[in-house]
């Protein structure tokens, strides 16, 4: 036993308790974020405090609300009412947003719920501890709902977000654009909610309450939304423009995202009418926009550019050694069928779902064994691409969970003999000179019946 350990054992309880753990980890003047209650969060906060200077902690720190006598920008983004939920919202939903106000309920991250979504606060911290600074570029090759590009933009870090799904591209672009929307059309939208709802119902189709089926009345005109060279056109478009006082595509897309969000709720529940859902969601969306724009204005923040694209992560059209950092979450193997979940939205986008399935990692193949083999094959290609575009000595971070039950079936081995996906990913990365420097574990609360832990794997390119 070394002398340090002997000294620690021999300290009196009074000395240890009076000194406290916090002051051993953090310097004077730092105040931790409320609701920080997991070990991995404390670890990320500790790394932030060691890597960032005081000004950087104030501007972009994730797990601190105060540095000396200065409030952090993260605190200013999160404080106050997190989201304007409708009065009929369940106590469980209200409690979730109250408990996660500093984790996820800020900026435009709360627009549109999405399975497997990151905690933005965690992403902010990871961007910091990977050493990314304003002006650098981060890549998320499987961006999903766009947490990485949106959070990076708020931090002044440029980003490239890639996803095979046209709906993910649309959703992320709409959430990013919402950070800069003019508010006058939104105020008009609140005054004409019924008419706007009826327009989108005609143009995009109406979901059947409590069912994944729907009528087939959507217009193919929606397939050009958010495409730079295309214009949004549909029957009654002039009427919509008159209602909101603008034909700016960003506003029209924002309203469509709110409609698609309400359609998703309508498919899952019969408790409220589709219009009631839309009205409540639109009010929440507009509240979110006004709140974040107020914070950004007061802090004189300049948003960094985000390039949002639909593409295949297995073959990125990005220059060699041009990216300063990579942060992404591979699909939970084949645990979530994102195409089935997004079927209404994808149909509105005019997507060919059968063709899209062949580009979605984790969905290719028929049997569970074939899906596993193709999943590993695809992930090896993606890691090779990440290594190719990443600059030397920079970091690639993956966040991934393991479904031992599925892997047991796919590999035909007992559950207790399953090798976790995080270990498999580390092994796949090594031949591409991506070496692990830290692995953190976080508990999963939402889908703990299938996956108990999620792993944050920080790799460095050698």
Topology:
Blueprint: H1 3-10, H2 13-19, H3 22-25, E1 30-32, H4 39-51, H5 54-60, E2 64-67, E3 70-71, H6 73-78, H7 91-99, H8 120-129, E4 137-140, H9 147-154, E5 158-163, H10 166-177, H11 184-191, H12 193-204, H13 237-244, H14 249-268, H15 274-298, E6 306-310, E7 323-328, H16 338-341, H17 343-348, H18 353-357, H19 368-389, E8 390-401, H20 404-411, H21 421-429, E9 434-443, E10 453-461
Parallel strand pairs: 4-5, 4-7, 5-6, 7-8
Antiparallel strand pairs: 1-2, 2-3, 8-10, 9-10
Helix pairs in contact: 4-8, 8-9, 10-14, 14-15, 19-20
Could you describe the 3D structure shown?
Among the domains are: 120-166 and 302-337 and 354-461, Vaccinia Virus protein VP39 (Rossmann fold, 3-Layer(aba) Sandwich), CATH 3.40.50; 180-298, no CATH class. It has helices at 3-10, 13-19, 22-25, 39-51, 54-60, 73-78, 91-99, 120-129, 147-154, 166-177, 184-191, 193-204, 237-244, 249-268, 274-298, 338-341, 343-348, 353-357, 368-389, 404-411, 421-429, and strands at 30-32, 64-67, 70-71, 137-140, 158-163, 306-310, 323-328, 390-401, 434-443, 453-461. A hairpin with a 2-residue loop joins strand 2 and strand 3 (70-71). It is an alpha/beta fold.
